[in-house]
Design a protein that fits this description.
- There is one protein chain.
- By secondary structure, the chain is of the alpha/beta class.
- The chain folds into three domains: about 1-180, 2-Layer Sandwich (Beta-Lactamase); about 190-340, Alpha-Beta Plaits, CATH 3.30.70; about 345-619, TIM Barrel.
- It contains 20 helices and 23 strands.
- The strands form four sheets. The chain has an eight-stranded mixed beta barrel, surrounded by four helices. It has a six-stranded antiparallel β-sheet with strand order 3-2-1-6-5-4, with helices on both faces. The protein has a five-stranded mixed β-sheet with strand order 8-9-7-12-13, with helices on both faces.
- Helix 13 (about 455-465) links the parallel strand 17 and strand 18.
- Helix 12 (about 410-430) packs parallel to helix 13 (about 455-465).
- The protein is globular, with a radius of gyration of 29 Å.
- This is Bifunctional diguanylate cyclase/phosphodiesterase.
- It comes from Mycobacterium cookii.
- InterPro entries: Biofilm_reg_signaling (IPR052155), EAL_dom (IPR001633), EAL_sf (IPR035919), GAF (IPR003018), GAF-like_dom_sf (IPR029016), GGDEF_dom (IPR000160), Nucleotide_cyclase (IPR029787), Rev_trsase/Diguanyl_cyclase (IPR043128).
Length: about 625
């Protein structure tokens, strides 16, 4: 029995470490362990497709030699004389059968009659909730009896596979929801911005070309033929655009009649202009809608960005300005973005004032409270850096962080923010304020791989008495996936010195779902873009619910960012997310105001006054 317990532990660990990418390999390794341990002739794992009423082979061991293409045993109907396949549909109990299989209903030729006679099959259903989602089977010769150890292991492993399939399916559904447009199946704005963030990172090859494509006259089609026809028109255009752009390019729908194409290879502005001209001619066409001929034309705006200097939002805005110029000129044409845009002039001004150094006297911190939605108690505060620009006033980080990173000033800026925030937080605690709360500080992606980073953090928490786990460093999904091995090592070292870590903007399109089991992080912060419209946007609710489920599965703390409406707050509470921050609760405040809030021990939650139904539901 002890050997079987060790086997089950090994199987559980192997499945926990597996990802959607390695699911088949991990499943085969588990089956190989089972075959070897119990001296089986064959083991198989099949999942159920209830929509098509078929059983789909997921893994088998040993592999069959000379498998035909297509494999005749890969997909089999439930309607079969074989009891294992019948079990696959709705059965809930383990069965053992002896079967000749000469009737051709075998789930695999390897389980046909051998030297020992007709084989014995033990099969356990995979149960998820009330549904049978698959079957796990052991096969051996008829002359041998099934022992209780093998049967118990089979049932336990089937349960582990059911959990494994549910987790992988949830990860895949969440990834798809996060990254794709519902109507066309193209990538969405979140996915596009994440892609651009990677393509425009420091030291990536460039230029990066972007074509912003707007369907001309879609409103007229909707008005004349209705939105159903308009949706068909958009789907048809999306298919044609995908074919025109090529399989290697990023193709996204931003919403309505707006699409974006980003070629996968570096492309100069001149080459991008040639591509835009070709796409305008290729996408021009005539379609018949309800017996009427409609001409399809597009307006295109073209912009090219430089990695390390431009960001995705800037590139999109410049291309958007260009596409508007195309539409003002009558459409069915392309326009190049101006090289001297307002954003570029602003960036040049920031670079000039930084002048290769950061003036610490010009920096200041504001703090964003994080509360327990049920009580209003402040559970953490996030430090947010601001810069007093000599001409433009107080600037938010989006205005200057990217410039600082491109000028190799990120490390100096991060060090100032961390030490200043810890010093101020330590001062509050010395006055008896903020006991039991955490300080959250953002870390730039470049910092995680900077030599001496861990030493700098250790020195800071020692200087300001923060080694009690009250400091939490926040890293974005982009930072995590940029170099997963080094990031994992750095996060582990932070945990070793008593520092918590969280993944910021979780779900932003840089999904690290497959690494959650092994990443040494303590918390997830839901991307505010999924939170702002909760209560009115069903797609966002589906994503948030999936993230809540993942946090619970991996025992991670969960915080919602961007809570701006009572509807969003109540929806979060209804689905089990207690911690939140956002303008509904409080805007970022100065250090003095934050100290006062900590002194009051909490913030009012006025939206709870009208939530009697929720309170009754939760209690």
């Amino acid at each position: 029995m002890a050997g079987n317990l060790g086997l089950i532990t090994s199987i559980a660990n192997r499945l926990l470490e597996a990802t959607a990418t390695t699911a088949t390999q991990a499943s085969e390794q588990v089956l190989a362990q089972l075959v070897d341990h119990f001296d089986l002739r064959y083991a198989f794992l099949r999942y159920s497709d209830h929509d098509k009423r078929t059983s789909v082979l997921a893994a088998e061991w040993p592999p069959r030699p000379d498998v035909a293409d297509p494999d005749p045993f890969a997909v089999l109907p439930f309607a079969s004389s074989h009891p294992v396949l019948a079990l696959c549909e709705n059965g809930k109990d383990l069965v053992t059968v002896h079967h000749d299989f000469d009737d051709g209903a075998s789930p695999c030729p390897l389980v046909q009659r051998g030297p020992g006679g007709a084989p014995a099959v033990a099969a356990a259903p995979l149960i998820a909730g009330a549904m049978t989602v698959g079957v796990l089977g052991f096969v051996k010769g008829r002359s041998r009896k099934w022992k209780s150890g093998a049967i118990n292991t089979l049932e336990t492993t089937a349960s582990l596979f059911a959990q494994f399939q549910a987790r992988i399916s949830a990860e895949q559904r969440l990834r798809h929801l996060v990254e794709h447009d519902d109507l066309t199946g193209l990538r969405n704005r979140r996915s596009l911005l994440a892609y651009l963030s990677d393509r425009l990172a420091v030291q990536r090859p460039g230029p990066v070309a972007l074509l912003y494509i707007d369907l001309d006259h879609l409103k007229a089609i909707n008005d004349s033929f209705g939105h159903t026809a308009g949706d068909w028109f958009i789907r048809d255009f999306a298919d044609r655009l995908r074919d025109c752009a090529g399989s290697q390019s990023m193709v996204a729908r931003l919403g309505g009649d707006e699409f974006v194409v980003v070629p996968d290879e570096p492309m100069s502005a001149h080459a991008a202009a040639s591509l835009a001209d070709r796409m305008c001619r290729t996408l021009h066409g005539r379609l018949v809608i309800e017996s009427q001929t409609v001409t399809r034309t597009v307006s295109v705006g073209v912009a090219a960005g430089t990695p390390g200097r431009d960001d995705g939002g800037d590139l999109l805005r410049r291309a958007d300005e260009a596409v508007l110029a195309s539409k003002r000129a009558g459409g069915d044409r392309f326009t190049m973005a101006s090289a001297n845009s307002l954003k570029q002039r602003f960036r040049s001004d920031i670079e000039r004032h930084l002048q290769g150094d950061i003036d610490h006297d010009s920096l200041l911190l504001h703090y964003l409270p994080e509360v327990d939605l049920w009580t209003g108690a402040i559970v953490a505060t996030e430090a947010l850096v601001r810069w007093r620009h000599p001409d433009r006033g107080v600037l938010l980080p989006d205005s200057f962080i990217g410039v600082a990173e491109s000028m190799d000033l990120a490390a100096e800026l991060d060090r100032w923010v961390l030490r200043t925030a810890c010093e101020e937080f330590g001062t509050w605690r010395s006055r008896g304020l903020g006991q039991g709360t955490s300080l959250r500080v953002n870390v730039s992606p470049l910092q995680l791989t900077t030599p001496g980073f861990i030493g700098m953090v250790a020195e800071t928490i020692a200087d300001f008495d923060m080694a009690d786990g009250s400091l939490c460093l926040e890293v974005t999904e982009r930072a995590v996936v940029h170099d997963i091995d080094n990031t994992t090592r750095t996060l582990g070292q932070l945990k070793d010195i008593g520092v918590q870590t969280s993944i910021d903007d979780f779900g932003s399109g840089r999904a690290v779902l497959s690494h959650l089991q092994t990443l040494p992080v303590d918390a997830l912060k839901i991307d505010p873009r999924f939170v702002r419209e909760l209560g009115t946007n069903a797609n966002d609710l589906a994503v948030v619910r999936a993230i809540i489920g993942l946090a619970e599965a991996f025992d991670l703390q969960l915080i919602a960012e961007g809570v701006e409406t009572p509807a969003a707050a109540l929806e979060l509470m209804r689905h089990g997310c207690r911690r939140a921050q956002g303008y509904l609760i409080s805007r970022p405040v100065t250090g003095d105001v934050m100290a006062s809030l900590l002194s009051s021990r909490g913030l009012p939650m006025p939206f709870l006054a009208n939530s009697k139904a929720l309170t009754t539901e939760m209690t």
